[in-house]
Amino acid sequence: MLDSFSRAVVGADAKTGTLSTGEIGALRGFIAEGNKRLDAVNAIASNASCIVSDAVAGMICENQGLIQAGGNCYPNRRMAACLRDGEIVLRYITYALLAGDASVLDDRCLNGLKETYAALGVPTGSTVRAVQIMKASSLAHINDTNTEEYGGKRFRKMGSTQGDCSALTAEAASYFDRVISALS
């Protein structure tokens, strides 16, 4: 697994040179945005169970056949496996977001995932839909856009670092898109 610093050093070493001014500037920016990055990871990790269970519930609402006899979320052990897999994918996305690099996501989670799911008969369309729902929910938590209107009595404001989180949101979205692409 590489983080942004390791990736920069490996790149400079490969070209047998030193870090360029632009690369050093990018690393400075990475450090300056560190609290936002930690807040984003915390927002996702502390709400992981809700994010995953809501995504699986949303996927099932759109395809009721999944919980019928013979469906991929029937019986309970298959539903539990679905929830477990969702949490694993979300955990690796948070690892990638924390490191600022997708290599851990690619190597440890996505490598062979499509083939494994095909062998197990897991419907990729439903899985992709669950990841899309997790993406929307996670990005809302990163941007701290959840409101009392949507959360009701379970509303909890994370209070993340103030400022522009658009670059961080785009980075997190790209990790979810990698998962969707790997499954499609």
Automatic annotation (TrEMBL):
Location of the protein in the cell: Cellular thylakoid membrane
Biological process according to GO: proteolysis
Keyword check for Amino-acid biosynthesis: no
Keywords linked to the UniProt accession: Antenna complex, Bile pigment, Chromophore, Electron transport, Hydrolase, Membrane, Photosynthesis, Phycobilisome, Protease, Thylakoid, Transport
Superkingdom of this protein's organism: Bacteria
InterPro entries: Globin-like_sf, Phycobilisome_asu/bsu, Phycobilisome_asu/bsu_sf
Membrane topology: Peripheral membrane protein
Claim: Hydrolase is one of the keywords in the record: yes
Single GO MF annotation: peptidase activity
Primary location group: membrane
One matching Pfam family: Phycobilisome
Family: Belongs to the phycobiliprotein family.
Protein name per its UniProtKB record: Bleomycin hydrolase
